[in-house]
Amino acid sequence: MTLFEGFVVVFVIIFFSLFFGFMVLGNKIAHAIERITAREATKHLAEIDDKMNK
């Protein structure tokens, strides 16, 4: 393997590691946003339910 091929292999490994790392991080952020939104929606639904039961 030449020096150039070594650099290409290292570059590809680093690129895909960063790519999948950002994918995992984005996925965690998206799930956190979903949980926050679900909590807010639950509060609003509880308020509507209380109003309808009065």
Description:
There is one protein chain. The protein is mostly helical and 54 residues long. Helix content is 94%, strand content 0%. It has 1 helix and no strands. It has one helix spanning 3-53.
pLDDT < 50 stretches: none
Silhouette: rod-shaped
The number of E-state strands comes to 0
What is the oligomer described by this structure?
single chain
Mean pLDDT: 93
What is the ordering of alpha helices and beta strands?
Answer: H
Give helix % range.
over 70%
Strand content: under 5%
Give the terminus-to-terminus CA distance: 78 Å
The major beta sheet can be summarized as: none
Compute the CA-based radius of gyration.
23 Å
- What class do helices, strands and sheet pairing give? mainly alpha
How many separate helices?
Answer: 1
How do the helices and strands line up, and which of them pair or pack?
Blueprint: H1 3-53
Looking at this protein, list some descriptive labels.
rod-shaped; single chain; mainly alpha; 1 helix; 54 residues
Brief rundown of the structure:
This protein has 54 residues and is mostly helical.
